[in-house]
Structures are given as C-alpha cells and as structure tokens.
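S.,

As promised, the flavin-adenine dinucleotide run. Input:
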Amino acid sequence: MSTSFNSSPNPNDEKRSSLDAVGHNVVKVDMDDKVTGAAKYGSDIQPDGVLHAALLRSRHVHAVIKSVDTSVAESMEGVKAVVTRDQLLGQFDDRVRYYGDVIAAVAATTPELAIKAADSIIPILESLPSVHDPKQAIRSGSPKVHDVNNPDFGQHGRHEFTVDNVEYVQNIDDYHYVHIGDVEQGFLEADFVFEHEYISPRVNPCNLDTHCTIAEWDGDTVVFTETLGAPSRSRDEIADLLGMPHDKVRVVMPPVISSSFGARSVPQLSFEPVAATLSREVGGSPIKLWFDREEEFTATDHRHQTSYNIKMGITSKGMITAAKIDLVADTGAYPNGVGHIVLSNGLSRPLEIYKIPHYEFEGVSAFTNNLIAGEFRGIGSTQLGYALESHMDEMARRADIDPIKFRLMNFVEEGYARPNTGRPIESCGLIECVERGLSTFKKIQNGPSNDPEKLRGWGMAAGTHTTGLGAVDLDSSEVKFILFPNGSLVVEVEVLDHGQGTDTVMTQIASEETGIDISNIHVQHYADTDSADAYLGSVASRSTYITGLAVQDAGRNLISTIRDLLSPLYDPGKIEDITITNNTVSFGNQSVQLSDLFDESIISIGFAESELNPPAYGAHFAEVEIDALTGHVTILCYVAAQDVGFAINPKMVEGQLEGAISQGIEFALRSEVKLDRGIPLNPNLADYSVISAWEMPQKLICEIVESNEESGPYGAKGIGTPAMPPIAPAIINAIRDATGIRFNKAPVESEHIAMALLKEGTNQ
Amino acid sequence: MNSSSSYHLPCDLTSALNLLSEHSDSAKIVAGGQSIMLLLRQGFLSSDIFIDISDISELSEISIQGGAIHVGAATTYTSLENSLEIQPYSVLLDSLHVIADPQIRNLGTIGGALGHADPSLDIVPPLLCLDANVVVQSLNATRAIPLSDFHQEYMTADLSKDELIHSITFNQPTGIHGGAYEKVANVEGGWPTVGVAAQVKLGENIDSFLDVKIALAAVGDTAIRSYSVEKSLIGSEISMDSIRESSKLVCNDIDPLDDLSGSAGYKTHLAGVLCQRALVKAINRAGGSL
Ligand SMILES: Cc1cc2nc3c(=O)[nH]c(=O)nc-3n(C[C@H](O)[C@H](O)[C@H](O)COP(=O)(O)OP(=O)(O)OC[C@H]3O[C@@H](n4cnc5c(N)ncnc54)[C@H](O)[C@@H]3O)c2cc1C
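Predicted complex:
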C-alpha cells in the first residue's frame, strides 16, 4: 500500500511554512503508551472488592415475562445480588422486545461465577407476535413494539412531531418531512426521471475494547467510570432514563479513552441501568459490567439499516430539476435519539451537496423487534451518501451523461444558500476534490484487463458531512491552560481522544500559539461530568473545529497574561513576539525565567463557539477488478480527495481516511449483522467478517484539499466522519462499471456478483 | 475449563498414552488449541482432564522413510509449510499458505485438524488427494487407517477414547505429476466457502491424464472426493474443453448447505469453477500446457 500527500501543488504551502507546529506531521503524542500496552483503558480498571456482573438476556425477540426463578443463583456462594427486570432502575416493563433484552442480572465475586449464576436463572416467557420489517412495522395491523409512538426513554434529540403520512400509524421512533418548491412540477420540467431503491447494511464498528462500565454509588449519586463520547449529554440521558436528577449522575472517564466510532456516544439500555441497580443492591460498592463479544454484537448499537427510495428528475443536459427521497430506517427495539440524526442528516445532506430546486423528503425511523441501532461514524450521512451517489451514478449512466460531469454541473458552491435553512455553504472544496482526485486517479489506474475472467471498472462518488453541532445548537467549548514555572503546560479539554488524535492536534495548536515545545505540553481530559457543564466530547467531527478554536484562544490568552506580568517590569513597547521556550519567556531580544514572573502556576481559559456547521467534502475514486466466476472483488486503486479546510496534521488526516476506507469497504462488500426474524446469525468475529490489510486497496492515495474554512482554527474543518460517505458508493459504482449491473443492496457480496453475472450469462 | 479440571503437559509419548489410558473417559487431547479452545469457550465442550501433546518432540517430527513421508501429529502448519520435505507437494503447500492467519498457523497442528474433523478444514482435501494414511496409537496398539475412512461422519474422527493420532503418512507421487489447491473465502484468511484440491499424474507425452484426484472442502459432512470428475478425466486427453465439461460433474458428488458463507447454489457453482482452476494449475505445474 502506498500513500502520498499533496501530490499536486498546494496553495497552502506558504501558509504551512509560516507555521511551526500546526500543519505538520507531528507524531501522535499518545502512541508509545498505546503500542506498548501501558495505556490503561476502562476495562483494565479493577477497584478493590469490585463485583462482576452478568446478565440473563432474552432469546425471544418479543415476549411477556411470566415468571423468573432466581432461586439457584441466589443460593450460590459468592453471588452477592440477583435482580430481575422488574427491579431494574429505569423504564423496564414486563416485556422483552429484542434478542438480547435484559431479563435478570447477577453480581458475584468473579466473572465466571456471575455467568454461571445468570445461566442458572429460569425465565418463563410467553411469546408475542414480532415485527422485523420496518416498512411493515409502521403500518397498521403489525405487532406493536411500543404502545405509543415517540416513547420517552430520556433519549436526546427527542422532539414532538406530527406524521403527515396516513399510512404511518404506529411503531414510530421519529419522523421528518420537508417539501421545498414543488416536486411534481419539478418532475414535469424533467426530460428524464429515474427512481430506485437502495438498502444499506446493519454494520458494527467492532471496537476491540468491548463496552465496560464500573458503577458505584456515592450517597445518592451514581457514578459510572467508562468512556462515553458525549459525557454530559449521556449523563443527562442516563439520569432521565433512571428518573433521577441530572446532578445525581456522574460520568468519570477512565485514564485512557476507548475507541468508539459512535458506539460509545450514547448510553446502552442493558448496560448503565443494570450496573447501577446491582451496585445499589450491594450497598453502593463497585460493579463491573464488561460485555463479551456476543453481547457487543447483540446488546450495543449498529448502524441503522436503511432503505432509501430516490426519485430524481433531470433535464436533457443533466441539470437536476427535482428529487423525492423516501427513507425508512430500522431503529430496532428501543429509542436512543439516533433515529432523529439519521433522518435529519438524510434530509439535509442532499441539499448540502447538490442544487435541487424542488425537493421532498420523508423519513421515518421505525421500531421493530430487531437489534438496536445507534451511532456509527457518519451517522445517517453514510447511508444517504451510499444511496444518493449510487443513484447519481446510475442516473447519469442511464441518461448517457458522464457521471462526473453530471455531478460537477449540479454541485453547490461557496455562498450557495441551502434551501432548507437559508444558510450559505461556508467553504467548499468539492470541485478541487474532483479535479485533483481524478487527475491522480488517472495516473495510477490500471485500465482494462486482457483476462476475460477479470472484469475491471472504476467509479467515483462525492460526499459530505458537516462539522460540529452548530446547526442543532450553538456549539461551544471551553478549555483551561495551566502553565508551570518549569515551562510545562497542562491543557485541559473536554474532547476525548478515542484514537483519532485530538490530544495531538490540541498539543500542536497549544504549541503554535505559545511556542512551548510539544514535549512540554500535556493534554488532559476533564476528569468527569462534574468538572464542566457543557461536556460534549468528541462527536459530530467537532473536536478539531470547535475545541481547536478554544485552545487557540487559551493560547492567545496565556500570552496576554504573560504580557500583563511583564509590563510592570519592562518597557511595554518592547514586549512583542512573546514565546515560551522551556522555562523561559522570550520577547523582542530579551528573555526572562518563568519563575521570576510567577510562583506556582498561571491559568488561562479559552473559549469558542460557533453557530455554523461547515460541510466537509470528499470525492473518492475506486478501480476494482472482479473475478467473473467467483464474484470476488479486489480494489486495485483508490484515491480519496478530501476537503478538510486545513490539515493540522496531514499524516493523521491520512490515517482518518485510511481507517474510514477500511470501514467503507466493510459496508460496501463484506460486513453485515445478519438477522433471521430478529435473531442474530453471526454475533461473533468468527462469523461476522471484518477486513484486514489484505482487503485494502492495492494502491491508495490521499489527496488533501484545503478550502480554508474561515470559522475554523487555521482554516480546519472535520475529517473523521465526513470521510465515510463517499467510500461505499465509489466502490459500488466501480462494480457497476465493471459488470454493467447496479447492485442496490450492500454489502455487495461475492455471491451476489457471481450469481448476477451468471444470470446475465456474462460468466458462462 | 472448570476449576476442577487438570491440565497435563507430558514430555514423552508414553506418558501421554498412559494418561490417556488412565483417564480415557474424561480426557481431551490439546495440540495447538485453535479449535478446542473455541469449543470450550462457547460451552460446547467440557472436560476434566486436558493432555497437551505439544511438548512431545516425537510427535512433531517430519521424516522420509522408504518413499513415504511421515508427519508427526503435533507438527504445526507453519513448520510443515517451512519444511524442505514438503516443498515438492504443491497441493499441500497451496493449502498451507491459505489456512487462517500466520498466528493460527503458528499454533494449529495437522493432528489437531484431523482430530477436529471439520469438513471445512483446508488441509484435508490435499491429504485426500495424496492418499494419506493416519497412524493412530494407544498404549497397546498402533493402527494405520486411510484418511478417507478416518472421517466418515460430520466432525467425527475414527478414534477410540484411549487413542491419539501419532502421525500422518503419504507416498511421494511418482511420474509426471502436479497438484494445486484453490479456495474462495469471504475475507483473506477466512474459512473456505469452498476449497478444491487437485492432483494429476500425466502420461509420458504430457497430453493425457494417467490419474486424477479431486477433493473438496466445505461442501458436505466431510471433505469429499469427486469420483465423477476423476473418472471422466482419467485416461482422456488433456484439453480445456474436457476439463471444463468434467468439472461440471463435481455437482454429482457434493452436498453443500445454505449457510452464512453462501448459498448451496453459489457453492455448487464455485465447486465447478475451482475444480477447473485447480486442474489447470496442477497440469501447468506438471509441465503440461493448455
Ligand atoms: C480464527 C481461526 C481461523 C481459522 N481459519 C481456518 C481456515 O481458514 N482454514 C482451516 O483449515 N482452518 C482454520 N482454522 C482452524 C485450524 O486449522 C484448526 O484450529 C487447527 O488445525 C486445529 O489444530 P490444533 O492443533 O489447534 O487443534 P486443537 O484445537 O488443539 O484440537 C482440535 C481437536 O483435535 C483433537 N486432537 C488434537 N490433537 C490430537 C491428536 N494428536 N490425536 C487425537 N486428537 C487430537 C483435540 O482433542 C480436539 O478435539 C481456524 C481457526 C481459528 C481459531
């Protein structure tokens, strides 16, 4: 695999060379601890006397609990608490609604004993009819998962809605609708109208470190030690779920933050409440609940499976006249606020990338007796991106228009007002992404094969996802700098380094602003939800953008504090270009020891807020080779051209892209949690395919496009999530090019390709 | 493993056989642990006594005796892959290269595979093509059984409770020969959706088949020989057409199931495709051309 950075001339070279720490490939500051195994994650914590929890989970997908016999478990030596579903804190009734729903839980002195005790519990369940197709679920006559629509489980983003569709009557988690212009008129204006459906897979991020929490009670406050990506939002959700005041719940971060990809952005129903209940049963002492891989697959969230129906009209030249999008997303058995994000991102993304004069969107997220869906990198935008970019590609091919020109013709540009909000697009590197990406791709592409058994093709897809939470709310961040006389600087931030590199980025920005050497800067996360009110953490690709700005502000404030300390001692006219090196402050041509300025430490606070949520864009290109007889897909070349505003750490931007590409390949070709009427068929890593370096593109180049987002630090905007949407469609469009067949259900497995080719007679 | 179970690590074969005879009802042999640990962890198996044979040097020897190769049961895939004796057997080497990942090949053993008797194991079809015999030993007796008889039912090896697999032997192919193993898996290093081994012996002019052996993984209760394909090719001229037509006959001998790795229909299609490819590769390696 080879990657190169900025293979074409970059207008930002000059800007980059004027910066010392920012804009350069600083080595990740947390790397040594992680690669040597010294890093202490949540699951490594083992408080004295901790008890271990295990759950008895439902093997029915929908049933009423008639009775639960816990007598054997209770009689076991070493078992300290046994609770049944009706005793759990929170909203647990007598019904289980999915495979994995909690029936009872046990705390014991060892994990093995806890499992044995949980297994000894005998539940008597009476099966209820179940529903597994979200399109059926919302229509009358299907079994009801919840008695009411929009039930309140303390989920964030819950809002009142009215459903405009008379057919959608029940099992509704959330509903979004918009109509801009007049789509029917738009279709009349079109020369060519095309409609198609696209189904996305239920994928799991497969975090290596499975969910683990330690719950304990401090008086009437319950404390959870675990990684939660959005700590204060999750604290509120847990409190609402448990029916407790927000300030009676505390979330404490472990020494090292676990990876997430969204899996740790919301609390889990059979997780925090269960651990909290068990701890209360044993007088508040700590309970460790650590999911095994099967629980990770069955009881934590997956990417929403979605079906998108897209109808689009274009003129003979290729201008979009209208689009009508219908989305049905499978929320699974319980709400967690993420259905709302899937729908709202599905609604707005098309308008953030293409100019669509007449637009209608209807989206519903439905309850079913399937596994629970939740956050996963590029929530909703990834599914929409796959559907929309598959559609754009197919539409262009059917109308005999070049798929790339078709996109270029319809792209939004800087300043274009999004019709749903009226807000102008902040910065837009789309065209540069396409141009640079394509030119690099052309250089490395293999072209057709001479072997009739090898089908080659290439495709592209564009995509977008926004940076930060500005669209939803005013997004803000506060950070604290503590400078010690020996020149070491502690930077306290709210964002969490799940591995994506925010500690390094914040270190770079702090160093840039103060002159302090990278090795003297130590980033710390706020210890817990009590230390800050707004503790949004690392979600929505907001960290570099908004917290980066706050770090920049704190750095500037620190320098001005030092100026204030210097000004009584020196001629204010000569106090310029203040920079800190080791334990010395230099200014003009003078220097002074920090210890001469202050004794213990000085503190500066930085603050940033933004009402904007600049979209970050990408255009990705893939060349595939398909074994016509087995259907096996090899990705020969891949170019990811991504507009990140400004790359504060180019190497880490590449890292984000490469990681996204591996997850995008899983989505496109390999991975899916398969359900048979709600029962997972592959809830383990032996049967659920994850890819390795083997399946990565043979040649991979990242082109970093820098559109200089004015509102971001040094021009930066997000990369983590915006990298996702273009990947799967670029690959699937390349498969279309190679085979002539449009696959509209991902993952497109080898079998699907081989059997489709067989049907067409291509591989006889 | 439960708290009352005991784990033995004998250094010599006699101690192992003694332990086995003493505890034959409750003992389980452990070699590389790459299959048995999964069964234990998933609760499909429990045992009181584990006898780990990986320290018995006699069981990991590879030797050539009178034209036959003997491979000790505790030989790991990796050491077999690297052994000089095995280099001429391309059908075996092909499969050794594609079994799981290097980490698993470093621990997994050939005896463990044969003891496990999973129909999806990659190593079994090549050994069937080589007419391998399994040497089985107990405290009082040693017997040799053709591998084709050793696995007769799903996940069952013809072993008594006091017996262990000592080694596997096969003759060096004679004449103009070549072999190949072809596999399709969902991801690199994954279990085969289908695997096909082919071993051919060609006539003097390299234009006809004197002998053909075809065996498949993952398409039945055990690894399966495809006698239909073999019969239709033995004695015939080598041609792409005959290979293509004969390969289609593989469907007469297999009985694949719909499962997570693919539908029965896809597996049947793959079996034919891979059979053809394995034959072509085997012929090329024998010096034949198509
Ligand atoms: C993640 C993973 C992926 C894998 N992928 C593949 C793959 O792609 N292709 C493939 O072919 N295989 C694959 N395997 C399986 C692997 O090949 C087998 O696990 C291995 O061959 C078994 O050997 P072992 O020494 O580890 O056996 P063990 O697990 O130690 O034992 C297996 C069984 O054999 C018995 N046994 C062991 N030795 C003897 C003996 N000498 N006499 C009698 N009985 C004995 C044991 O009692 C047990 O019942 C994979 C395994 C894992 C864990």
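The pocket of flavin-adenine dinucleotide is lined by residues B 28-36, 53, 73, 99-100, 104, 107-109, 111-113, 115-116, 121-123, 159, 164-165, 190-191 (CB under 6 Å). The longest helix of chain B spans residues 264-285.

- D.
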